[in-house]
Amino acid sequence: MGTPWVRTGPSGRRGAAQFACRGTDCRAGVPRESRYRHSLTAWRCLAAGEGRLTWGPGRRSGWPDPCGAERGDDRLPPRATTSGGTVAESKIDGDAVRSRVETALATNAPGFETFFLARLLDASFRYLPEGVADSDVEVCLVSFPVAPFLFNPQGTLHGGIIAMAMDISMGHLLNKATGATGTATIEMKTQYMRPIGVGTATCEGRFLRRGRTMCFMESRLFDEAERLCAHATSTWKLPG
C-alpha cells in the first residue's frame, strides 16, 4: 500500500514544504508546519484505509510526520504505559456511565452547583465557615467520586478533569462570596503532584487576595487518603 503523502512544492510560508494526501478522503494539501491540521488529516486517511501513518524520528512525540513517508518510516506511536512499563487498562462500567449521564441530563439546571458538568461529576458543595453570611465565606469544598470513565490512558484521573474541578471550586467560592455571576477566569496555573485513582477527591477553593475588580485564588485537590495531589492558582475578573 503506497504512502498517503507526496511532495507538491513550497507553500510560500517561511519555506515550509507542502504535502498532499493520495487518500481519496483527503482533499487538500497541508503545510508541514501546521502539525495540528495535518495530524487530523493523517488520522482521517489512516481510518479510511488509504495508506500508512508515519512517525518520523527527531520530531515531537505524538505528532504525525508526513515527511517520514519519504524516509520509509512507518512506525506507529508508542502506546501509553504506566511507570512499571505496562500498558494501563481501566475497566469502565458502561451501565454506571450511562446512569451517571442520564442522571446529569435529568437533574441539571442552568446555574451554580446544578449545571451539567457539576452533575456529571456528581459533585457536592460545602462552604466554610458554616453558618456565616455569604460575604464571609472563605472556602468552597467540592467533592466528587473518581470513576474509571474519567481516567487518562495511564489509568488515573485525567488532568483536564482535575483542572476543571479546581476551577469549579474557585468559581463557586467567588460567586458565593460576592454574589457576582459575570466573573471570568483570566489565567490559571495547575501543578500536578500525585496521580489520583478511584475514590473521593476533594477540592478546596480559597481566596489569596480579594479586590474590587480582580481576585486572586487558589485550589488544592486531595485524594481519599487526604494527600495533596494538585494545586492551582488563578486570577479572576469581576464584572464591571
TrEMBL record:
Q: What's a single GO MF annotation on this record?
A: 1,4-dihydroxy-2-naphthoyl-CoA thioesterase activity
The question of whether Hydrolase is a record keyword is answered with: yes
Q: Which UniProt keywords apply?
A: Hydrolase
The answer to whether UniProt assigns keyword Cell membrane to this entry is no
Show the ranges annotated as biased composition (Basic and acidic residues). 68-77
Q: Per its UniProt record, what InterPro entries does this chain match?
A: HotDog_dom_sf, PAAI_dom, Thioestr_dom
* Residue ranges of the region described as Disordered: 57-88
Which cellular component terms (GO) are annotated to the entry? cytosol
Secretion signal span: none
Thioesterase domain residues are 154-230
Q: Which NCBIfam families match?
A: unchar_dom_1
Q: What protein name does the entry list? A: Thioesterase domain-containing protein
Species for this entry: Acuticoccus sediminis
